[in-house]
Every structure is written in structure tokens, then in C-alpha cells.
Amino acid sequence: MVEQITKGIKISVETKFNSISTRNNTAYYVFSYVITIENNSQQTVKLTDRFWKIYDSLNKTEIVSGEGVVGQTPTLKPNDIYTYSSGCFLQSNIGAMKGFYTMINLDNFEQFKVYIPTFKLVTPVLLN
Q1: How does 49-80 read in b/e, with b if 16+ C-beta sit within 10 Å?
Q2: I want to staple 6 with a disulfide (CB 3.0 to 4.6 A). Which of 54, 67, 77, 114 is the partner?
Q3: How many Å apart are CA 20 and CA 79, to the nearest integer?
């Protein structure tokens, strides 16, 4: 698990290799990840947007951005925890992801970025 704290917001990431899938005669390595967002600050915050850089060891980088996460824009009061699961497909068996969430402090309407630490996506064979 990797973790990072920005302005009292703790991001924790756990990853898992799921399987190999074939689409249009191309093999993809399927990874899932669980992200936990903990509001350890004294303010109420709302996650509005996400920005991801997904790195594939075949030198491909994909940028993903948009509103919320998994169709939601969660609001976290102090000490609230929000967890969600998602995933990605890579053409190689090793890669990484990093990014940030854009959040709004609902107490003063200040917008800020919460950084997601770089996490590896690796098949179990490479871990042995």
C-alpha cells in the first residue's frame, strides 16, 4: 500500500493484478485498485475532479481526467473516509499510475489539489 497526505487529506492505494484479457486480438493486463480518502483536516471538503497519468512499460502514457470518481463527487466531513474501486488495462505486465484530485474546501470555497502517490501495477510473476 502507498499513502500520501496533502492538506490533511490522506490518500491510500492498494493494487491487484486481476487477469489477462483479449480485445480486438490484443492482450491486455487487467489491474484493479482500491483508493481510500481520509479527511484528517478540520474542514469539510468535496472531491470535484480527477486527473490521472497511466504509464505502461511499453512507453505509452494515457491521460484520464474528468468530473468526480466512479460517477460520484463525494463530500467528506472531518474524519470521514471514502473508498472506491476502479481499474485499468495495460498492454504490458508492468506500469504505474499517479495523479491528483481537485477538491473544494466547503468552509471557505478554496479549491486545491490532493496528490495521489505513484503506485506500481505489476503482475505477480515479476514480483517473485
Answers
A1: bbebbbbbeeeeeeeeeeeebeeeebebeeee
A2: 114
A3: 38
Question: Residue range 37-56: average pLDDT?
Answer: 98
Residue 9: CATH number of its domain: 2.60.40.1470
Tell whether pTM > 0.85. Answer: yes
CA-based nearest residue to 57, from 115, 126, 117: 126
Q: How many CB atoms neighbour CB 91 within 10 A?
A: 13
Query: Is 59 among the domain residues?
Result: yes
pLDDT for 67 beyond 90: yes
Is residue 128 one of the residues assigned to a domain?
Answer: no
Assign 125 to helix, strand or coil. Answer: helix
